[in-house]
Amino acid sequence: TQLLEQSPQFLSIQEGENLTVYCNSSSVFSSLQWYRQEPGEGPVLLVTVVTGGEVKKLKRLTFQFGDARKDSSLHITAAQPGDTGLYLCAQSWEIYNQGGKLIFGQGTELSVKP
Amino acid sequence: DADVTQTPRNRITKTGKRIMLECSQTKGHDRMYWYRQDPGLGLRLIYYSFDVKDINKGEISDGYSVSRQAQAKFSLSLESAIPNQTALYFCATSDPGGQGFSGANVLTFGAGSRLTVL
Fold it and tell me: Which stretches of chain B drop beneath a pLDDT of 50?
C-alpha cells in the first residue's frame, strides 16, 4: 500500500527553469525527509523537516512542511543539469523511533536539459 | 571505503536459484534495513533489524529471508529466486541517537545491488 504520493512522477525541464515537487499523505508525519538519488548510487539525504510550517533552504532548493504535517514540497530555483536525479520523500511515523521505519514515496524523476 | 558496502553490485541468475546479497557497514550503527526499488514504486521495505538479536518483517518480506551475523553485517537471501524479484536492492543503516524529540531516522544507503532473475 502506497501511503505517500509524490507528484509529478516525471519532470523534464530546461536549465534555468523553476520546478516544484509535491509529497502528500493522508497521515500526519512525525517527520519527513527528502532524499536525492543519482544513477548507480543509493539515495542521499537532503533535508529533514519536523515542525508544521517549517521552511528549510539548501542553496537553490527550498523545502516546505505543511502546517498540518501531512504534505511537503521541494522547490528548485533555476534548475541546473546537476540537479538531474530521482527525488524521494520519506515519512517517519514514530516519535522517539520506537519503530524507526521510513516509508518512501514513489519518487520524482527529474531531468534538466542544458 | 564506503560506509555501507553491498556485494555483489550486479547479479544475473536463473529462476529457482538461491541468492544472497550481503551488506556490511563501518558506521557502527545498530539499525540495518533492506529495501527493494522498482521503477515507479519508490523504495519498499523488505526486512529491518534494530540489533543483532532483532529481525522484523517489512512491507514485502514474502520470498525473502535475512540474517544479522554481526552488528556490521546484514545479508538478504532469496531462497528460490523468481523473475518478479528482479529489482535494485538497497541496504541502509541508521543511528537513532541524537535525533531529539523529532524521532527523525536518517538512513545511510549502500550503492545498491542490481539483481536480474531470468
Answer: 98-102
